[in-house]
């Protein structure tokens, strides 16, 4: 509990997490407001309110990567490792605190998006009743948390803020999309890419809103069921974190 308290203090006494939180909420909820206000031909749906989730996810991953790389940049991680020689415990505590914070942001962003859409377009039926609707909203919290774990793991491995941020952004925003350009096998490879699979959890069977494909997070053609898709995404994060912890214990701080 002491380690968790220390990592919580570290996280909330720096400016970047607060700015990233505001940015993530603004971009996610802002897109929901924009869609509800501009698209006068169609009433908002649960899916369309979550259109901006992927933009918020990017900001959360930046925040998570900075939470660990700034410690390496300013050398505070050395003092922590001297006080607590068990490096794995320290890094797991930091990962847990960052992931929990990301989960809270995801929850506020998702339900805030639904709320703002309902406020702008009161005629819309935005009740959360089905399994799909719960996954599309509350599920954002879980995806944010797992993505934060991935970003922290990348930060532990790279240790440089610019490099870690660049890596998580390029991979999540470009690599998984561009892989489809590989002849013959590109589409098959994409179906097993972690963030693409994570979208199956949020958009997967059945999508009871029958939404247009342009609304909400992009539908995923992954062959996994929604909950197995989340398990796959979490498994990828766990493997990456284990590699990061092993590396951190083998090299100098």
TrEMBL record:
<feature type="transmembrane region" description="Helical">
    <location>
        <begin position="165"/>
        <end position="186"/>
    </location>
</feature>
<keyword id="KW-0812">Transmembrane</keyword>
<feature type="transmembrane region" description="Helical">
    <location>
        <begin position="227"/>
        <end position="248"/>
    </location>
</feature>
<feature type="transmembrane region" description="Helical">
    <location>
        <begin position="136"/>
        <end position="158"/>
    </location>
</feature>
<protein>
    <recommendedName>
        <fullName>ABC-2 type transport system permease protein</fullName>
    </recommendedName>
</protein>
<feature type="transmembrane region" description="Helical">
    <location>
        <begin position="18"/>
        <end position="38"/>
    </location>
</feature>
<feature type="transmembrane region" description="Helical">
    <location>
        <begin position="91"/>
        <end position="116"/>
    </location>
</feature>
<keyword id="KW-1133">Transmembrane helix</keyword>
<keyword id="KW-0472">Membrane</keyword>
<feature type="transmembrane region" description="Helical">
    <location>
        <begin position="50"/>
        <end position="70"/>
    </location>
</feature>
<dbReference type="Pfam" id="PF12730">
    <property type="entry name" value="ABC2_membrane_4"/>
</dbReference>
């Amino acid at each position: 509990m002491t380690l968790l308290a220390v990592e919580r203090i570290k996280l909330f006494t720096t400016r970047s997490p607060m700015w990233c939180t505001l940015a993530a909420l603004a971009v996610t909820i802002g897109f929901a407001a924009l869609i509800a206000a501009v698209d006068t031909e169609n009433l908002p749906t649960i899916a369309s309110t979550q259109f901006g989730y992927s933009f918020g996810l990017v900001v959360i991953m930046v925040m998570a990567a900075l939470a660990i790389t700034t410690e390496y940049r300013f050398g505070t991680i050395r003092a922590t490792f001297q006080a607590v020689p068990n490096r794995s415990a320290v890094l797991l505590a930091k990962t847990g605190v960052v992931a929990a914070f990301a989960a809270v942001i995801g929850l506020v962003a998702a339900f805030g998006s639904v709320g703002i859409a309902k406020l702008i377009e009161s005629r819309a039926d935005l009740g959360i009743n089905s399994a799909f609707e719960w996954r599309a909203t509350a599920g954002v919290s879980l995806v944010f948390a797992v993505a934060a774990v991935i970003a922290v793991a990348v930060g532990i491995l790279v240790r440089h803020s610019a490099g870690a941020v660049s890596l998580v952004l390029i991979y999540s925003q470009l690599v998984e999309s561009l892989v489809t350009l590989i002849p013959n096998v590109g589409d098959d490879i994409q179906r097993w890419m972690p963030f693409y699979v994570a979208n199956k959890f949020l958009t997967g069977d059945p999508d009871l809103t029958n939404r247009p494909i342009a609304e909400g997070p992009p539908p995923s053609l992954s062959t996994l069921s929604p909950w197995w898709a989340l398990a796959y995404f979490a498994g990828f994060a766990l493997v990456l974190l284990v590699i990061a912890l092993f590396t951190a214990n083998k090299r100098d701080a």
